[in-house]
Design brief:
Elements lengths: L1 E3 L5 E3 L1 E8 L5 E8 L2 H10 L3 E7 L3 H5 L5 H16 L4 H10 L4 H15 L4 H5 L8 H13 L2 H51 L4 H6 L4 H34 L2 H13 L4 H22 L4 H12 L2 H15 L5 H5 L6 H12 L3 H57 L1
Antiparallel strand pairs: 1-2, 3-4, 3-5
Length: about 400
């Protein structure tokens, strides 16, 4: 619930669940609405109640799900950035966002964030309680904005970054829709042919098989069909169970490191992931250094903003070298994952004391390269998949037809 005070100041009234002891030493549970936890305790004390436990009431839809669609998150960041930019205090900005929210689920989450901020927590700390809504990189940038005193700029950067991610995601989804349909069709048609169609042709080839004139291509197809019919379901089930078991039993940090290591070795995807992580790192570090955040702190926050295990380990080594008085370029230049042109630009920026400007240029160049490589890879995926599917289906058809010509030759 939201009230207006006499000073025309917006106040969010939070419902608290309390366990209290009355004057007759009887325990009871009750609810009270107040602007903060301290106000709620004060109100209960005035009624002669001793508070043993008090906590904000959480509605069932918040406890069941912490998901909010991207449009609402973008709107939250944009409104908060605009209001802070014109001088509205943080808490009042959050209250205005709460007042303009129509969805009960989102409204309850904004209420909880307001309560945490009004209780003394920083904005990044309050948002970190909802990791499914606010990702680690965004929280790290907000943390950087709070430490450097440029929170509106950090929020605006997050909005631009989320819009860029959304546009890239939309382009990727639109481009790979047809290839995905091809893959789905192939995954249905090929097993159906191997299990349902090929075994029906096998009796027709019995004479050729007995005479030893069965084409090897056809014999391989029949063997594959028999194996798929006998062991296909079992092997598929074991594969699924193995993947689920590895995903469940492997710690998240080790799982993320393994997936990143494998994805970085892929021909096209590896380059895109590498450029994207480095672009985020350079962009975040540029903003931090521009606002006079210490180099060691800026490196740590920028590495966390990438969600890249590789970059986190590399930046940890870089921090150790910086503590010893060395340049940040030296440990970075030892990595084979970072291009030499990026290292050269960093060296020039460090020598000329224009590192923030150079980092921003590197991030811009990397983003342009990502767009170019993404467009190129999308154009290549479709014809490659078409060729693979054509070769696969064509090989099966040839293997089924070839014995017919062999049979005609024998009969003649």
């Amino acid at each position: 619930m939201l009230h207006r005070t006499n000073e025309c100041r917006l106040e969010v009234m939070i419902t608290f669940v309390c366990k209290v002891l009355d004057s007759e030493d009887r325990w009871s549970s009750s609810t009270v609405e107040a602007a903060s936890k301290a106000d709620a305790i004060s109100m209960l004390h005035k009624e002669g109640l001793l508070v043993a436990e008090i906590r904000p009431k959480t509605n069932w839809w918040v406890s069941r799900s912490n998901h909010i669609n991207n449009a609402k998150i973008n709107r939250f960041y944009e409104m908060l950035s605009n209001q802070l930019d014109v001088g509205i205090p943080l808490l009042k900005s959050l209250q205005i966002i709460h007042e303009n929210e129509a969805t009960p689920h989102a409204k309850q989450i904004w209420t909880d964030i307001i309560h945490k901020v009004s209780s003394g927590q920083s904005l990044s700390s309050a948002l970190s309680h909802y990791p499914r809504i606010f990702c680690h990189s965004e929280i790290s940038m907000i943390e950087a904005g709070q430490e450097g005193g440029f929170l509106p700029l950090a929020l605006n950067r997050i909005v631009l970054l989320r819009e860029w991610k959304s546009s890239i995601s939309a382009r990727v989804r639109g481009a790979v829709a047809y290839p995905c349909i091809l893959i789905l069709a192939a995954s249905i048609i090929v097993p159906f042919i191997l299990i349902g169609i090929v075994p029906r042709f096998e009796p027709l080839y019995e004479s050729l098989k007995q005479s030893g004139k069965m084409p090897w291509v056809t014999q391989c197809l029949i063997n594959i069909s028999a194996a798929a019919k006998s062991y296909g379901i079992v092997l598929f089930s074991l594969l699924v169970l193995g993947i689920l078991g590895w995903w469940t039993l492997t710690p998240k940090a080790k799982r993320s490191a393994t997936l990143e290591r494998v994805s970085r070795r892929l021909p096209i995807l590896g380059t895109l992931i590498q450029d994207w992580s480095l672009s985020q790192f350079c962009q975040t570090l540029s903003v931090l250094l521009e606002n006079r955040v210490g180099l060691l702190t800026a490196l740590s926050i920028s590495a966390r903003a990438t969600n890249s295990v590789f970059l986190m380990e590399l930046i940890q080594k870089t921090q150790d070298e910086v503590v010893r008085g060395k340049s940040i370029v030296q440990p970075l230049s030892q990595s084979k994952e970072i291009d030499r042109d990026v290292i050269a630009m960093l060296h020039v920026g460090e020598q000329s004391n224009t590192l923030p400007l150079v980092l921003n240029k590197i991030a811009t160049q990397l983003e342009q390269r990502i767009r170019k490589n993404l467009d190129l890879s999308i154009k290549l995926i479709e014809p490659i998949l078409m060729m693979i599917l054509a070769v696969l289906i064509g090989s099966i058809v040839i293997a089924l037809i070839l014995p017919i010509f062999e049979g005609n030759g024998l009969n003649s």
